[in-house]
Amino acid sequence: MELWYTQPQTDNIRFSIKVKEELFSGKSPYQQINIFDSDEMGRFLIIDGIVMLTSKDEFIYHDMIVHVPMATNPDVKKVLVIGGGDGGTVRELTRYAGIEKIDMVEIDRMVVEACQKYLPLTASKLNDKRVQLHFENGMEFVRRSKEKYDLIIVDSTDPIGPGEGLFTMEFYKCCFNLLSEDGILVNQCESPFYEKNAKEMRKAVKKIKSLFPISKVYQYNMPTYPSGHWLFGFASKKYDPIKDFKPEKWEALGLETKYYNTDVHIGSFMLPTYVRKMVENPE
Amino acid sequence: MELWYTQPQTDNIRFSIKVKEELFSGKSPYQQINIFDSDEMGRFLIIDGIVMLTSKDEFIYHDMIVHVPMATNPDVKKVLVIGGGDGGTVRELTRYAGIEKIDMVEIDRMVVEACQKYLPLTASKLNDKRVQLHFENGMEFVRRSKEKYDLIIVDSTDPIGPGEGLFTMEFYKCCFNLLSEDGILVNQCESPFYEKNAKEMRKAVKKIKSLFPISKVYQYNMPTYPSGHWLFGFASKKYDPIKDFKPEKWEALGLETKYYNTDVHIGSFMLPTYVRKMVENPE
Q1: Residue of B nearest to A64 (CA)
Q2: B134 is in an annotated binding site
Q3: Which of B263, B269, B271 to mutate to test binding with chain A, by most A CBs within 10 Å of its CB?
Q4: Which ranges in chain B are annotated with CATH 3.40.50.150?
Q5: pLDDT tens, B139-173?
Q6: Which residues form the active site (chains A, B) (predicted)?
Q7: A39 and chain B: CB distance < 8 Å anywhere?
Q8: In this predicted complex, what is the ipTM?
């Protein structure tokens, strides 16, 4: 017997991974969660039918969501992570000795528990002393919180289902208010290639640009996401990720990374012309 | 009825495009050629079951295979293209008024004729006055030729079937000998991500590095190729694609491009750490 997981990346494009076995299947109050094992991609997490991460390429996503803002401002002390239930973002953050506190707000406890059991590769640092887990709606958390953060990372699903609120103007406004005077916001920002993803990307960019003095988009290659060309938004009150970037400061930390390096940092902001145009005119 | 084209990108990964209709199917002495039409990717060319190009993303491949070397040395006058039967590489080359002669060597006349009929988007410039088509084996052409070229572009299929000879030491040596003193070689160089592609990439890089004083690899995002993370090799006798790059010289030409720009040029050489390591130690 052959078992294949298939994701319709658009109505007309399908991506499939041959499965060795299903390790977990659960329906939480929020979403359908599956974890499979495979020869090609190792263990992988599916939420509502969509690839969230695979063991083989998650290093790319987590390197880029964490090290780009942290290398822009290595003095970050307090971090808020919205989403990121698999723990990969927190894992990379905990490598910085200078970070004192990480609040992680994940709506779905089942995601975290399933990943702790079946994806220890990403979830193993969720018990770091500096990490506080909050199982609640990210929108409600940022509306209520009175903390100040140096960095907010929105490690969300697509803007469908529980992730939808994390793409709204109100959410970005609350993030702005929770950020310190030199705070940075990084958000999962979809892709420029397929129309459906590009539309969501443009909507998010338009909102964030209207709020932050510095708003950019950076790219990376994510093999298991539709088209493989994926983006993060970088918004900031003070630091420009290129002009204020001091590669030697990050390199002095001695962190080993498989995807990120200080050249990739710079190159990731060098967008193809068609993407640059979308970001400049996101209407 | 639904018709889907499916490519096994590895033994365990499949990529599928929903097909509107088949426009062409032919078996040449060298390979099986199919052209389909689709809603998502427009018309697309399949050779021996593998995506060669789709109308939606071919601009990325052709921008990067042509404009990176041409922007490194905008004074190129004589070009040799090996492969590239779809005509996209020649199309981009013909936009440079300074190019005086383009020899294109394609083993398979049926590919060219099918593309001229069904893919005029890429094949329309093959009748440019400066272009001379040679329907023969690329290996034999470079072994025999006594010309000198400023640029050789190896726009080949994977190193299986008729493309195999274009990944050999003898082929690269012949290319070296055909290049002028400031000549540049660009070659389709597979991908770092899936093991099978990465192995071929390392083998090609190792051979080319042993011959050329300057040998680099640059990357681009190609949604319909396995993993979407694809590479070209850049080898040269004189010009470094970064140190000798004069963006303003290329910009003065006023060419409009959808993917390439002078920032992307620089960023494309900024490789992720794991790719950099493969290129530095291709054993």
Answers
A1: B272
A2: no
A3: B263
A4: 58-280
A5: 999 999 999 999 999 999 888 888 888 999 999 99
A6: 155
A7: yes
A8: 0.96
Q: Does the annotation place A158 within a ligand binding site?
A: yes
pLDDT at residue number A163: 83
Say what the pLDDT of residue A102 is.
98
The end-to-end CA distance of chain B, in Å, is 49
Instruction: Report the C-alpha gap between B84 and B96 in whole angstroms.
Output: 18
Q: Is B156 annotated as a binding residue?
A: yes
Active site annotation includes A155? yes
**Are B130 and B102 contacting, i.e. CB atoms less than 8 angstroms apart?**
yes
The confidence band for A169, taking pLDDT boundaries of 50, 70 and 90, is very high
**Which CATH number describes the domain made up of A58-280?**
3.40.50.150
CB contact under 8 A, B263 and A257: no
| Min Cα separation B137/chain A (Å) | 33
> According to the model, what pLDDT value does residue B162 have?
80
Q: Using CA atoms, how far apart are residues B209 and B280, in angstroms rounded to an integer?
A: 10
Vertex A176, ends A173 and A179: CA angle to 5°?
A: 150
Mean pLDDT, chain A, integer = 97
b/e string for A220-234 if b means 16 or more Cβ within 10 A? Answer: bbbbbbbbbbbbbbb
Work out the minimum CA distance from A59 to partner chain B, whole angstroms.
11
pLDDT tens readout for residues B3-28: 999 999 999 999 999 999 999 999 99
Task: Cite the residue boundaries of each domain of chain A with CATH code 2.30.140.10.
Answer: 3-53
Positions of CATH 2.30.140.10 in chain B: 3-54
pLDDT of residue B158: 87
What is the average pLDDT across B91-119? 98
For residue B82, pLDDT beyond 90: yes
Question: Would you call A60 an interface residue with chain B, using a CB distance cutoff of 8 Å?
Answer: yes
Q: What is the mean pLDDT of chain B?
A: 97
Q: What token pair was written down for A250? A: 């990050």
Token pair of B187 as six digits: 């070659």
A75 assigned ligand-binding residue = no
Note the CATH architecture for domain A3-53. Roll (2.30)
B247 touches chain A (CB under 8 A): no
Stated length of chain A: 283
Give the CA count within 13 Å in the CB-facing half-sphere of A67: 30
Average pLDDT over residues A24-40: 98
A137 touching chain B per CB within 8 A = no
- Cβ of B40 within 8 Å of Cβ of A227? The answer is no
> Cβ distance B178 to B209 under 8 Å?
no
Rounded to the nearest angstrom, the gap between the alpha carbon of residue A271 and the centroid of all alpha carbons in its chain is 19
Superfamily of domain B3-54 in CATH is Spermidine synthase, tetramerisation domain (2.30.140.10)
